[in-house]
Amino acid sequence: MKVSALERATNYVVLIFFALVVLGPIGVIVSLAFGPQSASVAREGGGIHWENFADAWVIGRFSEYMASSVIVAVIVVVIAVTCSVLAGYAFGVMRFRGSGILFALFLLGIMVPTEAFIVPLYFDMRSVGLTNTVWGVALPQAAMSIAFGTYWMRAYFRSSSLAIIEAARLDGAGSFRILCQILVPMGRPAILTLVLLTFMWTWNEFLIPLVMSPSGAVRTAPLGLAFFQGQYTQGTALLAAGAVLVALPVVVVYIFLQRHFISGVIEGAVRE
Amino acid sequence: MSSGIASGRRATRLSGRAWVPYAYLAPALLVYGVFLLFPIVRAAQFSLFDWDGLGESTFVGLDNYVTVFQDGQLLEAFGHAFVLIFFFSILPLAIGLLVAAVLNRSTVKGLGFFRTVLFLPQVIAMVVVAVAWRQIYAPDGVLNGTLRAFGLGNLTRPWLGDYTFTLPAVGFVGTWVATGLVIVLMLAGMGRIPREQYEAARLDGANAVREFFAVTLPAVRGEITVALTLTIIAALKTFDLVYVTTRGGPGTSTTVPSYEIYRRAFEIGDVGLAAAVGIVLTIVVLLITTVINRIGDRS
């Protein structure tokens, strides 16, 4: 399409404006994180205060919170992705009684907000002694990710080539061997996207760890940050450093694999 | 769902024995059933009881639901959620459509880089976003500092402590988070429109505005549906943003349903009522998304 040079220039002005709007608040928190902790520290000089991160790590107990987050994230990703691949395989390539209703049941889980089931979940988990444990925090998140993951993997298995499956079938491969040796290796991009989204949602989740571990025994990084903000009111440098620490793992992965995040969120949202 | 024909074509014999598919489903169904489906059923049950979380519970029928529609503070919270829909959803959609339409008129170099940046707020934990905006809105924060620097000192205020301005201030954080997502979605949709349609519209003498309403807007109906669904759900279940920035205050000026559920169940000890609010919130979410998708499908 032919457009004037003025219009082309407008495009860049618009894009740069919105990029700055997005990056501005992020820049504010990053610059605070590298700034002096107090007026006396400022007087000592030094432009970039790396020590804020070490101090936040210790004072804000982020080593503890990040460890909890890593453990919870690993459990959720392993359980959710494994279950989703298996269930998506059944829905994607097999015919069986009740598949329509069962799949609709999984779709429901994508729509239902956490707030709908968190209240009874807490009291039932408390009565079986699962609150304030890693499993109490991880398993509900795994269940939520399975709802999306099953939907996501089903779409992949439906698009996978029937001819290849039939050929393997004729060679005498069982359904589990076909899954492990053909479909999973071929589906690496789809599975990687699911792993990334599950990791991101789990790492960023707030309500479930807040409710399921009221004693703070399993406090994940976002909660640690929220409580750090409540307790540590003097000076914003350490708080900002903590915020950067909490955001960093996902942002670093995102910068390298942004295609998977963007396509996952957008395609995943386009339900049938 | 077009599963009928598709699955007929896919009648593979992979499921040699009848139980095989169910064996593959079992692990997912177990985790999903125990930790999500069953609690939803329990929520419906809880909502019929009056319980403080510790002592005996008493059956009260639909009383909790009557309370949801009579309790001024709960109604106010739902009202706030609808205000947030404007900031999280309507405003980003309007901006997203406009910006994407402008950008779509010619090829832009480096669009991939900008897309990565615009999408960035989606991957940052909401708690981090909330902490960042608290600093910006602080009485001596960046926003007031900037206003003073431009000689607009009389506009400065404690943004998160003002009865009139706190809800819009919290809402604007949602605008900040959602707008990039909507722009990226709209660009993807508009990128799929065949160029010939624009050429034809031009030959008919359409200007940029006519082009937008005649060609672009009808073509991205599906993407608009997706954008509205995603952002409205995000608006209705905002919890962490409110918890970290205002805790519903000042007064009750920024409470939202999800925050009320948390507060009633775990701070006040009105568990049955909290469960009822959760069920009502779910019905609102399902209703709104169904209506949006019905309208969007009519294309």
Characterize this entry briefly.
The complex is a heterodimer of chains A (272) and B (299). Chain A has 272 residues and is mainly alpha-helical.
Write structural notes for this entry.
Chain B: It comes from Labedella gwakjiensis. Chain B: Residues 78-292 form the ABC transmembrane type-1 domain. Chain B: Its main location: membrane. The complex is a heterodimer of chains A (272) and B (299). By secondary structure, chain A is mostly helical. Chain A is built from 13 helices and no strands. The model of chain A has no long low-confidence stretch (mean pLDDT 91). Chain B has a domain at 75-242: Orthogonal Bundle (MetI-like fold), CATH 1.10.3720. Helix content of chain B is 70%, strand content 1%. Chain B starts with a helix and ends with a helix. The model of chain B is unreliable at 1-11 (pLDDT under 50). Classes of the chains: A mainly alpha (272), B mainly alpha (299). The interface between A and B is large, with 103 and 104 residues.
Most extensive interface between two protein chains, with residue counts: A-B, 103 and 104 residues
Task: Kindly report the average pLDDT value of chain B.
Answer: 91
What is the C-level CATH assignment of one domain in chain A? Mainly Alpha
Task: Extract low-pLDDT stretches of chain A.
Answer: none
Number of helices of chain A: 13
Counting helices, strands and paired strands, the structural category of chain A is: mainly alpha
CATH class of one domain in chain B: Mainly Alpha
The total count of strands of chain A amounts to 0
Q: Kindly provide the radius of gyration of chain B, computed on alpha-carbon positions and rounded to a whole number of angstroms.
A: 24 Å
From the N-terminal CA to the C-terminal CA of chain B, the straight-line distance is 16 Å
